């Protein structure tokens, strides 16, 4: 691919086959485009000047394009209240019992499945706060996270994290969804 020097400003293209300049900006009227035509005997250079001045004015008014990464973006499927913190349930293959935990996973997390905090060991609320603290610290070191958790218990920060948690018990996240039982493994 050859490197060419772009003489038109960002978001403005020259559509040679249709004989027009097209301005497209993601923040403009739900991605609509503005067309400057030089077809039917119009002077290409004067239309180009108008298109460039319009583009420069609109680029300044509309601002930069938002980052397209989903990192940190709340989706409609999120049920936990904090992005990248989610409930998890597993069935022990030996005894068939269901276990619940709060898990956290972030971009670049060294553990493939993320870091999981079991509700049986840390209580439902404690596991949720531990997952949130793990996400904030972005570490897989459990002793460091538990040390930080010990510092924030019964503080306003602890209560703020818990206020984002849904008010239903973790077991109610999966209403009547059958899980495979231990005999399936």
Descriptive overview:
By secondary structure, the chain is α+β, with helices and mostly antiparallel strands. The chain folds into two domains: 12-62, no CATH class; 85-184, no CATH class. The chain has helices spanning 44-62, 119-122, 124-137, 142-152, 156-163; strands at 12-15, 20-24, 33-37, 85-91, 98-104, 115-118. A three-stranded antiparallel beta sheet has the order 1-2-3, covered by helices on one side. Strands 4-5-6 form a three-stranded antiparallel beta sheet. Strand 2 (20-24) and strand 3 form a beta hairpin. Helix 3 packs across helix 4. The longest helix has 19 residues, at 44-62. The radius of gyration is 27 Å and the shape is elongated.
State Rg.
27 Å
The secondary structure category is: alpha+beta
User: Strand order across the biggest sheet?
Assistant: 1-2-3
Q: What amount of the residues lies in strands?
A: 15-25%
**Biggest beta sheet summary:** 3 strands, antiparallel
How many β-strand runs? 6
Low-confidence stretches: none
Helix content: 25-40%
Instruction: Return the string of H and E elements.
Output: EEEHEEEHHHH
Q: Kindly state the mean pLDDT as a whole number?
A: 85
Q: Name the overall outline.
A: elongated
Q: DSSP helix count? A: 5
- Domains counted in the coordinates: how many? 2
- Through-space gap between termini: 51 Å
Describe the secondary-structure layout.
Elements: E1 12-15, E2 20-24, E3 33-37, H1 44-62, E4 85-91, E5 98-104, E6 115-118, H2 119-122, H3 124-137, H4 142-152, H5 156-163
Antiparallel strand pairs: 1-2, 2-3, 4-5, 5-6
């Amino acid at each position: 691919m050859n490197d060419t020097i772009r003489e038109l400003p960002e978001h403005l293209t020259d559509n040679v086959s249709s004989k027009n300049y097209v301005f497209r900006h993601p923040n403009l009227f739900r991605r609509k485009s503005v067309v400057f035509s030089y077809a039917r005997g119009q002077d290409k250079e004067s239309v180009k000047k108008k298109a460039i001045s319009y583009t420069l004015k609109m680029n300044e008014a509309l601002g930069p394009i938002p980052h397209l990464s989903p990192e940190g973006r709340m989706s409609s499927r999120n049920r936990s209240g904090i992005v990248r913190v989610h409930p998890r349930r597993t069935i022990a293959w030996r005894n068939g019992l269901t276990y619940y935990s709060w898990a956290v996973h972030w971009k670049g997390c060294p553990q493939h499945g993320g870091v999981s905090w079991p509700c049986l060991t840390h209580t439902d609320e404690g596991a949720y706060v531990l997952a949130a603290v793990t996400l904030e610290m972005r570490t897989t070191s459990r002793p460091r996270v538990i040390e930080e958790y010990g510092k924030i218990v019964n503080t306003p920060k602890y209560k703020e994290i818990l206020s984002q948690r849904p008010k239903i018990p973790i077991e109610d996240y999966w209403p009547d969804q059958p899980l495979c039982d231990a005999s399936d493994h």
